[in-house]
UniProtKB/TrEMBL annotation:
Source organism per UniProt: Methylocystis heyeri
Name the record gives this protein: DNA repair protein RadA
NCBIfam families, A to Z: sms
A cellular component term, taken from the record's GO annotations: cytosol
Keyword terms: ATP-binding, DNA damage, DNA repair, DNA-binding, Hydrolase, Metal-binding, Nucleotide-binding, Stress response, Zinc, Zinc-finger
Record-linked Gene3D superfamilies: 3.30.230.10, P-loop containing nucleotide triphosphate hydrolases
Amino acid sequence: MAKSRSTFVCQNCGAITNRWQGRCDSCHEWNSIVEETPGTPSAARLGRGRPFNLEGLSGEGPAAPRLRTGIDEFDRVTGGGFVLGSVTLLGGEPGIGKSTLLIQACAELARRGSRVIYISGEEAVTQVRLRAARLGLADAPVELASATQVEDILATCSTGRRAALIVIDSIQTMHVESVDSSPGTVTQVRASAQALLRHGKSTGSSIILVGHVTKDGQVAGPRVVEHMVDAVLSFEGDGAHHFRMLRASKNRFGATGEIGVFEMTGLGLAEVANPSALFLAGRDAGAPGAAVLAGMEGQRPMLIEIQALVAPSSLGTPRRAVVGFDSNRLAMILAVLEAHGGLKLGAHDVYLNVAGGMRADEPAADLAAAAALVSSLTGAPLPPTQVYFGEIGLSGAVRPVIHAGARLKEAGKLGFARAVLSQTQQLNDDDKGAGVTARAIGDVSALVAEIAQAAPRR
């Protein structure tokens, strides 16, 4: 019998080496390689398979039944509720409110008669009860347990009535007895997730796996787990702000990029029905360097304020500081403004911030960022009832973007009267009836000229 040979696996990226080393060659993480002893490989040959029927692309199947939590923002991100038998991976930084959100969702489902099981591998049952009492959810018939062995958890969930929802908090604390490695290692996380996934698919129970995140915000553990599950959600937020965002980066049963917005209160997480009004609350509409972006988050239109500060620099290399915006895209916008807008920004410090802790990642934010930069440099405040959206090309042209109608309707709903967009943007009659006047521009030189005309005399 061949002797099993130890392997060394990086706990950050899953790379395998034949010896220990201090730094992983794949992800360059320090002290992340752990020795693991794999099971004896099977030498059995494949048996004779049985043929199965193949089907064509045409035809209709039954719609996937959904399990709605009763929290509208949560259900929006999942595509209308959890599909029965689906497995969802939820990641987020420590203390951001993942457990609070899940215990609220579990309580809503349990109160409507569904069987809900909450398994905590990090906290005792008493700690979960204290949180539920603080949130006013102690009366909800949620079944709690503190366990880490997957075999015991599956045996418990298989007894009695089928569970509609099973929450595992967190997958990094789970371990499978047949795998000879410590909890949290790549092998254990993969084996535990696979066992829970099989249980969900075979019984029809929806399962939520809570995952830890790394320093760069990615879900810790092997990337294969994200491919195994049906949906990957991330719960984001900033300790300096009182709201949180639930974002879907993968969803086999709904749209990706959808977000749900919550506000952290003394009684837990409250839904924010109108995020645009929240992000624009308290803005100084008369200050130069502030532009409102009519953006999109998934299928939801959202108005966001982009702030810029351009100031003369005393340094040999001016500073470029960015919060909530892509630094490479800012460098491109600055280059286009210099080359095609006639601005001289090489001797100025540039600071760009997306207010409220939001992120503006879509190309449609280019025009709003450029308007904020020009406004700050010239000292001309932008019209308070005007929004911007459009992509800026390297030639200086303003290019059209998608979902123009939804952006205009959201702006009109919040009292904005004018929108600056690309002159090649296609608008239909419904878009024109949103109550917002479209101001079409062709390139950044026209944008610079329009803002410079309103600059105060010096």
